UniProtKB/TrEMBL annotation:
Name assigned to this protein: Group 1 glycosyl transferase
Keyword check for Transferase: yes
InterPro entries reported for this sequence: YkvP/CgeB_Glyco_trans-like (IPR055259)
Keyword Transferase: yes
Pfam families: Glyco_trans_1_2
């Protein structure tokens, strides 16, 4: 989905960007792979399922308290 470059290495970063600029097919493949990865990891169905899991875990840990009317 991309290319890693060493931190604080502007030459390696420039080389990586230049490589993508010089190879449109590789650039398109990286873009498509990145999109697929984001949709797989962070799609609404996945986010909703993770949120539901958190609610279920919290509710399972703490029994509901019933308080009197105010």
């Amino acid at each position: 989905t991309g290319r890693l470059v060493p931190p604080r290495d502007p030459i390696a970063l420039a080389d990586a960007v230049g490589e993508l600029l010089d190879h449109p097919a590789r650039r398109a493949a990286c873009g498509s792979a990145g999109r697929r990865r984001v949709l797989t990891r962070y799609g609404w169905d996945r986010v909703a399922a993770a949120t539901e899991d958190v609610y279920r875990e919290v509710l399972a840990r703490r029994p509901a308290r019933i308080t009197g009317a105010a």
